[in-house]
Specification:
The structure holds 2 protein chains of 2 kinds. Chain A is mostly beta strands. Helix content of chain A is about 0%, strand content about 50%. Chain A is globular. Chain B is mainly beta. Chain B has no helices and 11 strands. In chain B, a hairpin with a 3-residue loop joins strand 4 and strand 5. Chain B is globular. Classes of the chains: A mainly beta, B mainly beta. Chains A and B meet through strand 5 and strand 9 of A and strand 5 of B.
C-alpha cells in the first residue's frame, strides 16, 4: 500500500517563529491535502493542491505540490498560539494504471506546540 | 456547513463487550468513512461506504464491521472489543469518492477498552 512519511514528528517553537513541515510519498499523487486537528476536535482541511508545482496560500499558511508529485510542503509564517495542533498531509495516490485509489492516505502527523 | 456528528465522545468498555459507534451527517453525502487515529501512526482507514447498504474494507478492517442502513448514518461495530482497539475513532463524509473530494470529519470518539 501507499505510505506517507511526514516530518518532523513534533515541533516546539516560540510565538512569532516560522514553521516548515513536509510530506513524502512512496508513489505519485495527483492531489495533496493538508489538514489541521485542534485539540479535542476532528481534522479540518487547510489547503488543497491539485497540480505539480502549485503553490497555494491560505492566510499565513503556504503549501506547495512538489514537482516530482511525491512530496508536499507546508509553511506557517509568524506562528501564534492558536496554531497549536496536529497537522496532517493526505492524498489519494495513483495505482499502476494511473487511476486514483479513491481513498485518502494520511501521514503520521506533525504535532505543533507554540510557546507564547 | 456540513456537520458530522459522533454521538459518543468518550467510551469505556471491557474486553469482550460489543461496541457501537454511531455517526450521522446532515448534508446528503453519498460517502462515509471510519478512521482510527493513533499517535505516530496518523489516520488509518477502517471501512468506508459509498452508498446505503454498501461497504468496502479499508486498510485495517480486522476486528471491525460497519452498517449503513440509511444514507445519513454510518455505524462502526466492534463485535468483541479488545485492548488493542483502544484508540480515537474518527468518522468522515464526502460528496464524491474521488481522491480530490474533501473529507469532513466529526469530533471523534475516544474508546478505552479495559
Amino acid at each position: 500500500g501507499q505510505q506517507l512519511n511526514q516530518s518532523p514528528q513534533s515541533m516546539f517553537i516560540q510565538e512569532g517563529e516560522d514553521v516548515s513541515m513536509n510530506c513524502t510519498s512512496s508513489s505519485i499523487f495527483n492531489t495533496w491535502l493538508w489538514y489541521k486537528q485542534d485539540p479535542g476536535e476532528g481534522p479540518v482541511l487547510l489547503i488543497a493542491l491539485y497540480k505539480a508545482g502549485e503553490l497555494t496560500s491560505n492566510g499565513r499558511l503556504t503549501a506547495q505540490f512538489g514537482i516530482t508529485r511525491k512530496d508536499s510542503f507546508l509553511n506557517i509564517s509568524a506562528s501564534i498560539p492558536s496554531d497549536v495542533g496536529i497537522y496532517f498531509c493526505a492524498g489519494p495516490g495513483l495505482n499502476a494504471g494511473g487511476t486514483s485509489y479513491g481513498k485518502l492516505t494520511f501521514g503520521q502527523g506533525t504535532i505543533l506546540t507554540v510557546h507564547p | 456547513d456540513v456537520k458530522v456528528t459522533q454521538s459518543s465522545r468518550y467510551l469505556v468498555k471491557r474486553t469482550g463487550e460489543k461496541v457501537f459507534l454511531e455517526c450521522v451527517q446532515d448534508m446528503d453525502h453519498e460517502n462515509m468513512f471510519w478512521y482510527r487515529q493513533d499517535p505516530g501512526l496518523g489516520l488509518r482507514l477502517i471501512y468506508f461506504s459509498y452508498d446505503v447498504k454498501m461497504k468496502e474494507k479499508g486498510d485495517i478492517p480486522e476486528g471491525y464491521s460497519v452498517s449503513r442502513e440509511k444514507k445519513e448514518r454510518f455505524s462502526l461495530i466492534l463485535e468483541s472489543a479488545s485492548t488493542n482497539q483502544t484508540s480515537m475513532y474518527l468518522c468522515a463524509s464526502a460528496l464524491g469518492l474521488s481522491g480530490a473530494n474533501v473529507l469532513t470529519f466529526g469530533a471523534g470518539s475516544r474508546l478505552t477498552v479495559l
